[in-house]
Write a structure and sequence with these properties.
There is one protein chain. This protein is of the alpha+beta class. It contains 7 helices and 4 strands; from the N terminus they run H-H-H-H-E-H-H-E-E-E-H. Strands 2-1-3-4 form a 4-stranded mixed sheet, covered by helices on one side. A hairpin with a 2-residue loop joins strand 3 and strand 4.
């Protein structure tokens, strides 16, 4: 497994942003590229490959990838519901929304539906407290969630997948 030539060029460009010997600073954006290139998640061989590219120890990659919720360490569905579970969202009912999604999709937090369509994750603050409860779906926020809005989001995703 290797990056495409375009991605390798991008990795080189990212590394060049940092002083000589500080290529570890490129780890976060390179992990994003790796996750995008290799199926939406980071398995051990992918993280080892990133370590090789940056000339760092694999454990340094594992530590970072396992710390941030934006990196997936197991396969995920086509659509990932990342529901905020911090204070303002919880006060406004995100626990109810999380429970509803679990029931509606018949999965637990961290699981993917059997058809591979949906993964449910809980995440820390997404910085949209005024729109609570909310979740991130891809690059978009879905705000002021209700059970009805969750139903509509699920149907929207299913329609896009067909």
């Amino acid at each position: 497994m290797t990056f495409s030539s375009d991605k390798l060029n991008k990795v080189s460009e990212i590394i060049s942003r940092y002083p000589e010997g500080k290529q570890k600073s490129a780890l976060l954006p390179v992990l994003h590229l790796a996750q995008e290139e290799f199926g939406g998640w980071l398995d051990v061989p992918v993280m080892d490959y990133v370590a090789t590219l940056l000339n760092i120890e694999p454990i340094e990659v594992y530590e970072v990838a396992s710390f941030y919720s934006m990196y997936n360490l197991k396969p995920v569905g086509k659509y990932m519901f990342e529901v905020c579970q911090t204070g303002p969202c919880m006060i406004n009912g995100s626990d109810t929304i999380i429970d509803y999604i679990k029931q509606k999709l018949n999965i637990a937090v961290g699981e993917t539906t059997t058809d591979g369509m949906f993964t449910l994750k809980t995440v820390e603050c997404l910085g949209a407290c005024g729109y609570a409860p909310m979740m991130q779906l891809g690059k978009n926020y879905r705000e002021h969630l209700t059970k009805e809005k969750v139903d509509a989001i699920i149907e929207e995703c299913r329609a896009k997948a067909n």
